[in-house]
Automatic annotation (TrEMBL):
<comment type="similarity">
    <text>Belongs to the UDP-glycosyltransferase family.</text>
</comment>
<dbReference type="InterPro" id="IPR002213">
    <property type="entry name" value="UDP_glucos_trans"/>
</dbReference>
<protein>
    <submittedName>
        <fullName>Anthocyanidin 5,3-O-glucosyltransferase</fullName>
        <ecNumber>2.4.1.218</ecNumber>
    </submittedName>
</protein>
<keyword id="KW-0328">Glycosyltransferase</keyword>
<dbReference type="Pfam" id="PF00201">
    <property type="entry name" value="UDPGT"/>
</dbReference>
<dbReference type="InterPro" id="IPR050481">
    <property type="entry name" value="UDP-glycosyltransf_plant"/>
</dbReference>
<keyword id="KW-0808">Transferase</keyword>
<dbReference type="GO" id="GO:0050505">
    <property type="term" value="F:hydroquinone glucosyltransferase activity"/>
</dbReference>
């Protein structure tokens, strides 16, 4: 499978969490940045030649070809599977997310005691 989306951050995070390769087509805001992150991390594609938002009319055949490219590329599936596992380790008990939250709680406690 694969997920064609606008490149919104939540869509990217959800795709990685589920281990699904991504094709972005950004329209505004930070979507270019997140689309570039998708491309650079190797979890999917961003057809930059399609323009920004609705600047260009993209024919159905071109869209289909890029989806086939996404679906047929084993390296995207491998990379997103690696990132899925890393995300789940980070978010799990004893992971880096828990450590960061614990440090923040300790900092708040320390600040509360000093006031």
């Amino acid at each position: 499978g694969g997920f064609v989306n606008h490149g919104g951050w939540n869509s990217i995070i959800e795709s990685v969490w589920q281990g699904v390769p991504i094709m972005t087509w950004p329209h505004h805001g930070d979507q270019k940045i997140t689309s570039e992150a998708v491309r650079m991390s190797g979890v999917g594609i961003w057809p930059q030649e399609w323009g920004w938002g609705t600047q260009e009319v993209v024919k159905a055949k071109e869209i289909a070809n890029r989806i086939k490219e996404l679906m047929g590329n084993e390296s995207f599936r491998v990379k997103v599977a690696e990132m899925k596992e890393a995300a789940r380790r980070a978010a799990g008990v004893g992971g880096s997310c828990e450590a960061i939250v614990q440090r923040q709680i300790e900092e708040w406690k320390k600040n509360a005691q000093s006031t």
